């Protein structure tokens, strides 16, 4: 596994783009909170991507970050969690404001994951 370095949201929002940066900003915010909460942070990117593989207190957790799950991206986001070639204790998709369960994957809003 490889440690990821991300920019702060202030720097991301300085870039010019024709599309919304909501997904990138949320991913950076998740990364910042993981760092603040002393998680050991890694990622997986072989044939598919899992945004974060984190470890804290000997517990390995897989996290995808998606501003909003919809019919166009749900399959891709779930794939990043179910195809991991190693076991994890928990699987999450952190969103802006959605919550539900997809098999053993917990879809949870950012504020609930970090502030409850």
Structure description:
This protein has 116 residues and is α/β, with parallel strands linked by helices. It has one domain (9-115): Trna Endonuclease, Chain: A, domain 1, CATH 3.40.1350. Helices cover 29% and strands 30% of the residues. The protein is built from four helices and six strands; from the N terminus they run ααβββαβββα. A six-stranded mixed sheet has the order 1-2-3-4-6-5. A hairpin with a 2-residue loop joins β2 and β3.
Short description:
This protein is of the alpha/beta class and 116 residues long.
Let me know the number of strands. 6
Approximately what portion of the residues adopt beta-strand conformation?
25-35%
Helix/strand structural class: alpha/beta
Largest sheet: 6 strands, mixed
- Low-confidence runs of at least 5 consecutive residues: 1-8, 10-18
Helices and strands, with pairings:
Elements: H1 9-12, H2 22-36, E1 40-45, E2 49-56, E3 59-65, H3 74-82, E4 90-95, E5 100-102, E6 105-109, H4 110-115
Parallel strand pairs: 3-4, 4-6
Antiparallel strand pairs: 1-2, 2-3, 5-6
């Amino acid at each position: 596994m490889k440690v990821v370095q991300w920019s702060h949201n202030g720097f991301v929002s300085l870039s010019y783009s024709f599309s919304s940066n909501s997904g990138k900003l949320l991913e950076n915010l998740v990364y910042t909170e993981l760092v603040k909460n002393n998680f050991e942070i890694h990622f997986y990117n072989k044939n598919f991507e899992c945004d974060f593989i984190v470890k804290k207190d000997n517990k390995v957790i897989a996290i995808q970050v998606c501003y909003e799950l919809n019919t166009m991206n749900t399959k891709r986001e779930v794939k990043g969690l179910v195809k991991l070639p190693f076991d994890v204790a928990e699987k999450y998709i952190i969103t802006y404001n959605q919550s539900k369960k997809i098999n053993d994957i917990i879809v949870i809003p950012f504020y609930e994951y970090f502030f409850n």
